[in-house]
């Protein structure tokens, strides 16, 4: 299955415009998190959330009220099952 970076970028832009959150979607290689999409290509500090063994999210502080929605939408785009 292919991952659409455009879909990831759009999702990150939506959350940035709605909530003012900067997001970086990363591919994980051991300890290294490599930026693949989002609006936070220079975001290295912040909350790191491992979505699975291959993908993670680096973000400004995410309000709990939107965290579940954001993570669910990211996992759907990345074809991650819980």
Report on this structure.
The protein is of the alpha+beta class and 82 residues long. The protein has helices at residues 5-19, 64-77; strands at residues 23-29, 32-38, 47-50, 55-59. Strands 2-1-4-3 form a four-stranded antiparallel sheet. The two termini are 17 Å apart. The model has no long low-confidence stretch (mean pLDDT 87).
Give keywords.
single chain, 82 residues, 35% helix, four-stranded antiparallel β-sheet, 4 strands, globular, alpha+beta
Give a short overview.
By secondary structure, the chain is of the alpha+beta class.
Outline the secondary-structure elements.
Elements: H1 5-19, E1 23-29, E2 32-38, E3 47-50, E4 55-59, H2 64-77
Antiparallel strand pairs: 1-2, 1-4, 3-4
Helix pairs in contact: 1-2
């Amino acid at each position: 299955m292919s991952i659409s970076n455009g879909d990831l970028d759009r999702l990150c832009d939506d959350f940035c415009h709605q909530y003012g959150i900067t997001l970086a979607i990363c591919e994980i290689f051991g300890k290294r998190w490599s930026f693949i999409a989002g609006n936070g290509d220079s975001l290295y500090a912040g909350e790191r959330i491992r979505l699975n063994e291959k993908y993670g999210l680096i973000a400004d502080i995410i309000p709990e009220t939107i965290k579940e929605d954001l993570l669910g939408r990211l996992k759907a785009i990345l074809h991650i099952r819980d």
